[in-house]
Amino acid sequence: MLTTTDQQKKCREDVEAVENFSKRYYDIFDTRRHDIDKFYQAQAKLVWNGMEFNGQSAIAKHLVSLPATRHYIYALDFFPMNDLFPNEAKTYQVFVSGGVIYGPPESTSVPKEKRLFSHIFVLTVDVNSSIWVIANECFRFHE
């Protein structure tokens, strides 16, 4: 059984891991989207504003097809999913809210509007590669 000090240390490590993953994910999404597939499990699922995409390659293909973006994260929270996945100590449901601007940053001819969004994903450690990956997610604009 973990001591209180061990539990606090684990909690700090988890917070750091989730925050670092989220920061890297949106950075790659905005700057090197062709590498976005590395953030997903092979059998991952995405629901993007009601449209469903199944599998790492289908998700990457959809995300790469979107215009250039700049994301702004306003809030990030996460919860362990130990009740649903008792054998997977490193599985979390992550909640992100923020704004995103579409279009190339150098373009001034088209006015850019920041769209608010919610992004919820299940983050876990891949058993084969031991890296953090998204197992499934839901992205939705606030209309």
Point out poorly predicted stretches: none
- The CATH level-2 architecture is identified as Roll
Number of separate domains: 1
Proportion of strand residues? 35-45%
Sheet with the most strands, sense and barrel status: 6 strands, mixed
For this structure, the CATH topology is Nuclear Transport Factor 2, Chain: A
Mean pLDDT: 89
* Count of DSSP strands: 6
Query: Helix and strand succession?
Result: HEEHEEEE
Note the quaternary state here: single chain
Cα(first) to Cα(last) distance is 47 Å
Question: Regarding CATH, which class?
Answer: Alpha Beta
Radius of gyration: 16 Å
Q: What is the tally of helical segments?
A: 2
Structural class: alpha+beta
Helix share, percent:
25-40%
Commentary on this structure:
The protein has helices at residues 4-31, 56-65, and strands at 40-48, 51-54, 69-80, 91-102, 114-125, 132-141. The protein contains two helices and six strands. The model has no long low-confidence stretch (mean pLDDT 89). The protein has a single domain (4-141), classed as Nuclear Transport Factor 2, Chain: A, CATH 3.10.450. It is of the alpha+beta class and 143 residues long. The chain is 27% helix and 41% strand. It has a six-stranded mixed sheet, with helices on one face. The longest helix is centred in the first third of the chain and has 28 residues, at 4-31. The protein is globular.
